[in-house]
Each structure stands twice: as C-alpha cells, then as structure tokens.
Amino acid sequence: MKLIFLYGLPATGKLTIAQEVASLTGYKLFHNHLAVDLLLSVFEFGSPAFVNLREQIWLSVFEQACCSGIPGLIFTFAPERTVRPKFIREACDAVKQWGDEIDFVELVCPLSELKLRLDAPSRQNYQKLTSLSLFEQLHADGTFDSSYMPKPWLTLDTSLCTPKQAASQIVKTLGLTPKDSSTTLEI
Fold first, then answer.
1. In terms of Cα–Cα distance, which of 170, 153, 152 is closest to 161?
2. Domains contained in the chain, number
C-alpha cells in the first residue's frame, strides 16, 4: 500500500485535493476530520482522551489498510499543537512495518488567501476551523508549527493551481497510476 500523507494549514485545500487524487487513482480517502468529529461528540478538543484516541484511530486505520491489501490511502492532516510529534514517527513505522510506502505532500497557500477560504461553505460540513479571529490567534501563538514534519516529496502552493491541477501534479510526481489509463492529467 502507498499512503499519501497530505498536510498543511487549515483551508489549504487538503480535502478538496485529496478527493481529486482519489478520483484519479481509485485510492481510498481517510479525511482526518472523520476521527476528529467523532471524538468531539464526546471529548473536548485537545483533552488527553481526545488526543490519545484520535491518534489511535489514525494509526489503526493505517495498519488495517496495510494488512488489508488496499493499494492506496490518502490521509489529510493539519499539523497543530495537540498532535504529538511522535505520531508522525509512529505513522511511518506503522506503514513501513508492512513493507509499504508513505509519501508526504505539503500544501501551502498565502495567509491572505487562507483567510478568505476559512468560511467557505464546504468547511461547514465538518467541525473545521472557520473563525478568522481564532485562526489569527492560533497562528500567532505558533499552534500550527509543522517543524516536526518530514521533508515532503512535493510542496504545492494551492493558490497557483486548481484542485484538479494539484491532484494531477501529485499523481505525476509520486508516480501514481491513474485508475483509468485514458485519464488526462491536468498540470
């Protein structure tokens, strides 16, 4: 299995681009908010139980995807203070213990564009960060530090391309096989 680990700040387009990559490749999509929103129904964000269970769920899905013979999985992720840096090492170990691969792709976007995207209707479907003032406070406090992330295979500025173009670039750069060989990649 190949795990495509798509990460970036809130509103960089992770889910939208992940959906496009999934459409091109047939890979399964594991949006991190599936676990986050589940746990928010019981636990406060950042509480010890929330953090422990969220990482257990993420890692369990990776391990089960590897041992189930799924060809590929796309995971969306926003580095932030409540994620323990050891999670990244554990994710790599969980995938590599099966002889599988993990490729990191970083999505970036100018802050001015991110701020415009925060309240997009598509962000309302999940309990995503939508408050501009909270984003600015968290950003100023260093909450979104990603210094513990491995060097990505690819960094894409999502303000310079459409989601389809970004997905095509990911597929091309990572050498992924489109599920339909007649698919034309938009780059």
1. 170
2. 1
